[in-house]
């Protein structure tokens, strides 16, 4: 077993102070000091996703005719506009059969559900025959386009005669686009950053507790969704940087502190109670709030109760142009949403199935990605908090099938299956306290250097966003399956790239073969070669929190 010798992590593993709520204790086979990941998902993991609103707008009533081979875009847009005008919760209904759409559908209001009759054959199919490269040239993406040029973001593969700028659709945009009107999906140009309106200053709060003392509660109310924001006020010497990474010797990228109006860490949450200057939050604090590590309570523009369910999204067959050169066959882009969901959806032949940014408390459940085109992402979890991805099945080839990306916090992939070329992507940029849990990963071990090997963790990202992750990222019960490779009794060496400090790996199993885990930098590694006694850390923590079981 290997343990991380970091003062900050050592403090996190110590016994809690009197009255302090620790996320998990050293009991029942769960190491002490891990965050409580069970708050991920809609309603902080405990609320049921609501049924589709009974008030509905049918796209067929506005002229869409499925399966006729004609473009239904104008009819769907008319139906969407009618749904926008409904004063209360509303469902936009798609009929069985193929509905052809050649424009981006913008869902820019709360309390709306896009629903079909099912995701299987005979259900509702949304057919997108053209990529975003052709159909969306809106100025909304100009900042990203300029950023790619300024940073000279290029895919360079001399052996394939490739030397091109990245596509703006590599990690942004989708034909089903959710977000407040005129939203700025993600900040790229720091000079254009504007701080969100501050409601009050945080005064004191302890990491992993749910109470926060504020300077003035006058602008706060119970039920309000706010965003806690920690800034690197002292540059690379800021306390929040140390809270993120500990006393690591790894170089910390300058993007953590370069832009004064961009938070280093953000936590979107809901106020559940106010007593004097003490505010109770819906989920535990990501970090301490104290004079040398200040945080503000900011207003955050967002939508709520937005859902997409019971339908299939399909794109035409065709080869991929290359990694980072995607043309924009992207399914769902969910940004600026709190308490939203995607469920029972099939996405076929996408460049990226589902992309998330600047969102929180999302549940993405029972999603299957299929097709032969090499995709960039199956489900991308980026710049989000408390996102739960449950029962994802990745059948298509994907460069990053399971990914926690830049500025993702306390998000969870659980019960996922990746059927080919499986890796776990921890993408650089202050992503921390995330969990890969109870996942089945099909791999193709390689015989290199006299041993069977597989590089399971593969972190990307530019140097200005390194390291690969911060303290609290955990891999729990990753079951590796393969054809060929090591015989019974032969060891599989599972490796990583250069990831980040404060990682935990519990239960890497490989079809009964012995497993050696080589994780860099050194992580806390337990139960190599076997399935842990607790198969799902997420469910274990959720059950403990809700007193359903122990």
From TrEMBL:
Domain of life: Bacteria
This protein's record includes keyword Nucleotide-binding: no
GO MF, any single term: lyase activity
Signal is among the record's keywords: yes
SUPFAM superfamilies per the UniProt record, alphabetical: Pectin lyase-like
Segment forming the signal sequence: 1-17
Keywords from the named record: Lyase, Signal
InterPro entries: Pectin_lyas_fold (IPR012334), Pectin_lyase_fold/virulence (IPR011050)
Protein name as annotated: Pectate lyase superfamily protein
């Amino acid at each position: 077993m290997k343990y991380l010798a970091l003062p900050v992590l050592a403090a996190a593993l110590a016994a809690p102070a009197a009255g302090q709520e620790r996320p998990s204790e050293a009991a029942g086979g769960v190491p002490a000091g891990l965050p409580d990941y069970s708050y991920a998902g809609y309603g902080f993991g405990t609320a049921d996703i609501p049924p589709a609103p009974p008030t509905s707008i049918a796209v067929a009533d506005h002229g869409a005719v499925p399966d006729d081979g004609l473009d239904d875009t104008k009819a769907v847009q008319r139906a969407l506009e009618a749904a926008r005008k409904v004063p209360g919760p509303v469902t936009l209904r798609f009929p069985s059969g193929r509905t052809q759409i050649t424009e981006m559908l913008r869902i820019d209001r709360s309390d709306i559900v896009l629903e079909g009759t099912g995701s299987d054959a005979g259900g509702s199919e949304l057919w997108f025959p053209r990529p975003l490269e052709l159909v969306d040239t809106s100025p909304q993406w100009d900042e990203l386009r300029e950023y790619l040029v300024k940073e000279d973001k290029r895919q360079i593969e001399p052996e394939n005669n490739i030397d091109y700028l990245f596509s703006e659709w590599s990690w942004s945009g989708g034909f089903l686009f959710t977000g407040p009107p005129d939203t700025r999906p993600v900040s790229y140009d720091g000079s254009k950053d504007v701080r969100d309106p501050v409601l009050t200053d945080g005064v004191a709060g302890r990491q992993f507790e749910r109470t926060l003392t504020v300077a003035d509660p006058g602008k706060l109310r119970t039920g309000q969704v706010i965003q806690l924001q920690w800034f690197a006020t002292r540059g690379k010497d800021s306390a929040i940087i140390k809270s993120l990474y500990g006393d690591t010797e790894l170089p910390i990228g300058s993007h953590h502190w370069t832009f004064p109006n961009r938070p280093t860490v953000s936590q979107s949450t809901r106020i559940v109670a106010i007593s004097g200057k003490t505010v109770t939050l819906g989920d535990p604090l990501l970090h301490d709030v104290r004079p040398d590590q200040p945080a503000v309570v900011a207003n955050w523009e967002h939508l709520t109760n937005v859902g997409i369910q019971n339908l299939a999204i399909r794109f035409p067959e065709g080869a991929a142009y290359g990694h980072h050169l995607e043309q924009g066959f992207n399914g769902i882009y969910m940004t600026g949403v709190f308490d939203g969901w995607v469920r029972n959806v099939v996405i076929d032949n996408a460049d990226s199935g589902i992309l998330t940014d600047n969102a929180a408390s999302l549940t993405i459940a029972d999603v299957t990605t299929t097709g032969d085109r090499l995709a960039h992402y199956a489900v991308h979890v980026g710049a989000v908090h408390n996102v739960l991805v449950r029962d994802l099945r990745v059948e298509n080839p994907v460069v990053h099938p399971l990914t926690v990306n830049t500025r993702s916090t306390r998000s969870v992939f659980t019960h996922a299956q990746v059927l080919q070329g499986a890796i776990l992507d921890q993408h650089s940029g202050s992503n921390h306290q995330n969990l890969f849990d109870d996942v089945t990963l099909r791999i193709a071990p390689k015989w290199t250097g006299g041993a069977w090997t597989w590089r399971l963790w593969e972190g990307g990202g530019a140097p200005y966003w390194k390291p690969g992750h911060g303290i609290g990222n955990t891999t729990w019960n990753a079951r590796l399956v393969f054809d060929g490779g090591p015989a019974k009794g032969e060891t599989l060496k599972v490796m990583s790239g250069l990831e980040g400090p404060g990682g935990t790996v519990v239960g890497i199993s490989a079809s009964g073969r012995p497993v050696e885990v080589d994780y860099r930098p050194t992580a806390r590694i337990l139960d190599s070669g076997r399935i842990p006694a607790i198969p799902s850390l997420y469910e274990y923590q959720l059950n403990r929190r809700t007193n359903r079981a122990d």
